[in-house]
Each structure stands twice: as C-alpha cells, then as structure tokens.
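This week, think about what follows.
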Amino acid sequence: MAKQIVHKLVDDLEGGDADEAVKFGLDGVQYEIDLTAANAQKLRDIFAPYIAHGAKVGRGGVVVGGQAARGRSGATAGREQNMAIRAWAKKAGRDISDRGRIPQEIVDEYHAKAGR
C-alpha cells in the first residue's frame, strides 16, 4: 500500500493556503509565521522603515560594511567592554555596582555619549 504525505502551509492570519513561511525577530526573540504572498508583503512593508534605519546583526555581532565586527574573543571583549562601561558610568556619577549585570539604560547611554 502506498502512502502520500502532503505538507500544506496554512496562513496563520486568515486560515487559507499560505505561500511562504516568514521568519523575523524582535526583542531577541525569533518568530516564524506562515503567510500568503500578500500578507507576507504587508509584514515586510510594516518592517521596511525600521529595517532601513536599523543595523543588521549577524551571528558574530553587528554587521559593519557587510562584514561582522569582530576582534577579540566574545568573552574577553565583553569583559573589557563591561569594565569600560563601569569606569565611564562611575566617572559620570552613575550608581553602578562592581559586579553583576549592567543596567541596559547605562549601556545605551554609554554607547550614545561615549560614541562606542
């Protein structure tokens, strides 16, 4: 007896036949949604202005000029950057501990004001 297995994409928004699976990420979370071509285009149109002003991020970090920005190993570079952020924050009069996670607002302020 022969069997035929058919995998069918169903549009996750409207329930009809989907044309493609669209992958996207937001806030560090990756998503995949099955959509018709029209709904996929709507999603791309919504993201277009944000993508135009954003920086593409690859597995190794932010992509600069088509190549991932790399240098030292991630752990070493991360420690050194954290030390620099802590030193900058203390000099700027910000309340920051010597250990533990650095608050994101301080990291963002460091990158914005220190130009790094």
User: Anything to note?
Assistant: DSSP finds three helices and five strands in the chain. Strands lie at 20-26, 29-35, 57-58, 61-64, 67-68. The longest helix spans residues 74-91. The chain has a mean pLDDT of 84.
